[in-house]
Write a structure and sequence with these properties.
The strands form three sheets. The chain has a six-stranded antiparallel beta barrel. Helix 2 packs across helix 3, helix 10 packs antiparallel against helix 15 and helix 13 crosses helix 14. 42% of the residues lie in helices and 17% in strands. It is globular, with a radius of gyration of 29 Å. The chain has 20 helices and 15 strands. The protein is an alpha+beta fold.
């Protein structure tokens, strides 16, 4: 199947996003001098967010290096062209306004296209660049710039490449100059329309285009994780796999699904819709998880990541050899992402085990309200908490008992105060199976949080979530939770308001485990037997 389009100004990305291959003429608007690549850049940018991996061949007679920078800058985007908006501190902006002319003069002697490339791919060493510019300014007796000023200089440098003035994105840019780029859900191959020099110059053949695609994909070297998730996406999009069980529901079941949404008042129908969606997706997931074809694909792909996979050793046979086997497997897995052998240290292996435990226990998406299993951070005191309230008591606007009704829209809940034991993370990873420690990440930092703040008992606190029913938590924002505390001077009870930020959400099975900690703790209060060594 092949489709040819000569107008992309009105082309919907959804029409092309499921294509196996897209060949795109870079200049689609040749009658415009300032930006003839506007439509092609726009399409590539939209495809990067399409949630379907696309391979796009940019087919052009233009200089491939220039085209590479233009596409890379489009996919990365830029901050707003306003220094005042860029700087979080007014003092930095004042320093910029006063000294930027002198800084730019020295910066032009330092910066290069190689540095621009590193910046676009987040591979630049900002500390070194700052030091270089500060040394140059010091020689001229100029005021010295800060790191933030150098970042802004780089932002200004790549702005001319960003022909469509796209805003800053969250994508990591990977690639090789003049060859390929990968960002989000798009892989871009750069192909010249002709090849050779002088009289030997000729049109690039389809076979050469195909060879270039293969060469760049191999050079990209997609990881095991990327290959598996790509195949999983392919399977989900296969209608026979994903929807046949859902569509097999009888008339009564279909009516029940609709009734389940309509049975509650309008303000609660989004929650009812979420429950319906979860049920439908569970049917899809059940079939995918039991797909022998997909399971075999994952197994065979894993077995091919290293030509010299270490021989498996059972822990029952020899604990020492089993430990060495696990270390060797980290090396093999690291090779898949081209991690140098010398970087596979104890700390690196700990990070791998931390990431694995995090994948096992933490959900990918954060809820928009405090719910069972939510890990929260008191942003003022930098203390972490775990919500252990019953699930039914955390659903906004769902009334469960007289207390909930009387306190509406606020909601009483219980929390375990967690102990930050990140400084002993490796020790706790060796005993992770005991499940006393939650492994998660907060803003890129790997944390280890112990449910036992003291030696063997959790610290359980009662709090009230303010406006739980009618004020949801926006991404990155906090929620007020109030606790009763004793004033140390007057001994009077006072209300302390803490601002909680959502950090992570435990998977249901793990959340249930920590709810049980509360039951076990309360069951033993005051009824411990006495131990003594009478020998």
């Amino acid at each position: 199947m092949c489709d040819v389009e000569d107008r992309t100004d009105s082309l919907d990305k959804d029409k092309v996003r499921k294509s196996d291959l897209i060949v795109l003429d870079y200049y689609l608007k040749t009658d415009v001098q300032n930006n003839p690549a506007e439509y092609s850049l726009r399409l590539i940018d939209e495809l990067s967010e399409s949630k379907h991996m696309n391979i796009v061949v940019v087919y052009t007679k233009e200089n491939l290096d220039d085209v590479w920078f233009e596409v890379a800058a489009t996919l990365r985007g830029n901050h707003d062209n306003n220094a005042e908006a860029f700087y979080s501190e007014p003092s930095l902006n004042r320093e910029w306004q006063t000294n930027h002319a002198e800084w730019k003069e020295e910066w032009q002697l330092i910066v290069s296209k190689d540095i621009h490339e590193q910046f676009l791919k987040s591979e630049h060493v900002i500390e070194q660049l700052t030091e270089d510019l500060r040394n140059a300014c010091n020689d001229q007796n100029y005021e010295l710039p800060n790191v933030e000023h150098v970042e802004w200089l780089l932002e200004q440098d790549i702005r001319p490449y960003n022909k469509n003035n796209c805003p800053i994105s969250s994508f990591e840019i990977h690639g090789k100059r003049q060859k390929w780029l990968q960002a989000g859900d798009v892989f871009v191959v750069f192909c010249s329309k002709d090849t050779g020099e002088g009289e030997q110059k000729r049109d690039t053949t389809p076979e050469e285009v195909w060879e270039l695609i293969q060469e760049t994909l191999i050079d990209w070297y997609p990881s095991f994780y990327r290959v598996v998730t790509s195949e999983l996406q392919n399977q989900v999009e296969d209608a026979n796999l994903s929807m046949e069980k859902v569509l097999a529901a009888g008339d009564t079941e279909q009516i029940a699904a609709l009734w389940g949404v309509l049975r509650v008042e309008d303000s609660q129908r989004e929650q009812a819709s979420k429950e319906l969606l979860n049920n439908l997706l569970n049917d899809v997931v059940d079939k995918i998880q039991n797909s022998s074809e997909l399971l075999r694909f994952i197994k065979e792909t894993a077995n091919c990541v290293d030509e010299n996979l270490p021989q498996y050793t059972s822990p029952d046979t020899n604990q020492g050899k089993y430990g060495q086997y696990l270390k060797d497997i980290v090396k093999s897995a690291g090779k898949n992402l081209k991690v140098p052998i010398e970087n596979v240290t104890d700390e690196f292996r700990g990070d791998v085990l931390h990431a694995f435990n995090e994948q096992l226990s933490i959900e990918k998406e954060l809820p928009d309200h405090i719910s069972t299993g939510a890990v929260l951070k008191d942003i003022d005191d930098n203390v972490y908490y775990l919500c252990i309230a019953p699930s039914c008591n955390t659903v906004p606007k769902q009334m469960t008992g007289e207390i909930t009704k009387r306190m509406k829209p606020h909601r009483p809940m219980r929390f375990i105060r967690l102990a930050d034991v990140t400084n002993k993370k490796l020790d706790h990873l060796r005993k992770a199976h005991r499940s006393h420690v939650i492994f998660l990440s907060d803003e890129g930092t790997r944390l280890a949080l112990n449910v036992y703040e003291s030696d063997d008992s959790p610290t359980i606190e009662q709090g009230v979530v303010v406006s739980h029913d009618d004020e949801y938590i926006a991404l990155g924002k906090s929620k007020d939770v109030q606790f009763l505390v004793t004033n140390p001077e007057t001994l009077a009870l006072e209300v302390a308001t803490r601002k909680f930020k959502l950090v992570a959400k435990l998977r249901p099975a793990f959340a249930s485990r920590y709810q049980n900690y509360q039951i076990q703790y309360e069951a033993r209060i005051g009824v411990d037997l006495v131990s003594a060594n009478m020998k």
